[in-house]
Design brief:
single chain; NADH Oxidase; 7 helices; 6 strands; two-stranded antiparallel ribbon; alpha+beta; about 210 residues; disordered C terminus; about 20% strand
């Protein structure tokens, strides 16, 4: 897990503007604070996928045309959730009481860190599953509803497994830096598929 500086700047809306040493120092300080506070944890489960996009034996159906298109040809999915932990939330609360600027930088650093941690999780799942995995697809992507977080947290038992609890407004605690993601199995052995170029997390296979 890391906080990549270029990604950090992109999250802040940087589009090639000139930066100075003071700003970069503040970014590095926020990144260091984030990594020091973080205690990353995750939980994952693998499910067979029915024709109507029901996770076998759960009664939970993946709703939306975008997730249906993304999972076309898939027979199984990984469901996983991850968090940076309660200490990161407490640090954010402390910084928010002191001022919005430091809190914004810390919050953005945490967003970078959790995405990096999720990348690490996906790499580990890829190594162990024996099939080519598609990029993860999260609640709120396209028309895949945020409300699905409730069922994802329930199926993964995130409250007891990693201390991640869903709030009524469809956020999670600790922080909005917990991610409940789908990680897809395309049902074809890895050696049958061309490896993709490294890209964004929304990159998908055009063919199986």
């Amino acid at each position: 897990m890391q906080v990549d500086r270029a990604e950090f700047l992109r999250y802040l809306g940087w589009r090639g503007q000139e930066t100075d040493e003071l700003l970069l120092a503040k970014l590095d300080d926020a990144a260091e604070r984030c990594l020091d506070a973080a205690s990353p944890r995750m939980v994952a489960r693998r499910f067979a996928l029915g024709k109507n996009l029901e996770l076998a034996g759960t009664g939970f159906i993946l709703e939306g045309q975008d997730i249906r298109a993304h999972l076309a040809g898939c027979s199984e999915v990984y469901l996983f959730a991850a968090t940076l932990g309660i200490a990161a939330e407490r640090e954010l609360a402390k910084l928010s009481a002191r001022g919005a600027y430091e809190a914004l930088l810390f919050d953005t650093a945490c967003s970078c860190a959790i995405e990096s941690y999720c990348d690490d999780i996906c790499d580990d799942l890829q190594k162990s599953c024996g099939k080519r995995l598609l990029p993860r697809f999260s609640c709120g992507y396209g028309d895949f509803p945020l409300e699905a977080q409730r069922d994802i947290c329930r199926l993964l038992r995130t409250d007891t497994a990693i201390g991640l609890c869903r709030r009524r407004h469809h956020g999670r605690s600790p922080l909005p830096h917990g991610k409940a993601h789908l990680r897809q199995l395309c049902g074809v052995p890895a050696h049958r598929l061309r490896l993709p170029q490294k890209g964004s997390m929304t990159w998908i296979f055009a063919h199986f």
